[in-house]
Amino acid sequence: MNWPESTGSSRGTAARGAILSGVRVAIMTAGSRGDVAPFTGLGHGLARAGHEVTLVTHERFELLAARAGIGFHALPVDPRAELESSRGQALHRSTTGVGKLVRVVAMARSLAGRMADDLVTAARASDALLLSGSVAPLGHAVAEGLRLPSLGLNLQPLAATREFAPPMLGVGSWGPFGNRVVGLGLNLAVEQVFGAALPPVRARLGLPPLGTAAALRSRERQGWPVLHG
């Protein structure tokens, strides 16, 4: 079966078409249990609908996948070990959403490259990729390089908007202009997590060089579909 490639304005149609056709779907996510567990319900539902589903995340969450009746592909990073490290303890001591974000970005940036090879390996055994916000910048490049349809799945709104401040910061509104600017800044911070890991992945998959900010703008221009909630 020939799948539409994950580029341009056909991206949403390609991703949804793949999901409707009974194919191998990889759900990719990273982080704590709260970043992983919600996707097991989605995976279970897709499996019941006749799809071959694989959860791609940290090894310590393999049992969650087994209980949901879906496949599993381990990523090499152990989030609990990282949280118990000196960097993780500094994160716990942060008292503001902004402070936590700064430390999370620094920690995640140092770990992103260790996950890249396994994301590519899992993607090569899949027909469509469903990407959480925690891996979307890297996962999207993998999907593009392998010409796979993909879809973003966020557990909370991440797109910059004038309507409200980014929920993950845990702050009130800064007004329409401030909300939009802060949202864009948050999106760029997430992109920077993969600043060092992205270039070698793009080169490996035959994609042209693209900076993190340019990659974000490219996804927005292409109308890459993202669902949240």
Automatic annotation (TrEMBL):
<protein>
    <submittedName>
        <fullName>UDP-glucose:sterol glucosyltransferase</fullName>
    </submittedName>
</protein>
<dbReference type="InterPro" id="IPR050426">
    <property type="entry name" value="Glycosyltransferase_28"/>
</dbReference>
<dbReference type="GO" id="GO:1901137">
    <property type="term" value="P:carbohydrate derivative biosynthetic process"/>
</dbReference>
<keyword id="KW-0808">Transferase</keyword>
<dbReference type="GO" id="GO:0005975">
    <property type="term" value="P:carbohydrate metabolic process"/>
</dbReference>
<dbReference type="GO" id="GO:0016758">
    <property type="term" value="F:hexosyltransferase activity"/>
</dbReference>
<dbReference type="Pfam" id="PF03033">
    <property type="entry name" value="Glyco_transf_28"/>
</dbReference>
<dbReference type="InterPro" id="IPR004276">
    <property type="entry name" value="GlycoTrans_28_N"/>
</dbReference>
<feature type="domain" description="Glycosyltransferase family 28 N-terminal">
    <location>
        <begin position="25"/>
        <end position="120"/>
    </location>
</feature>
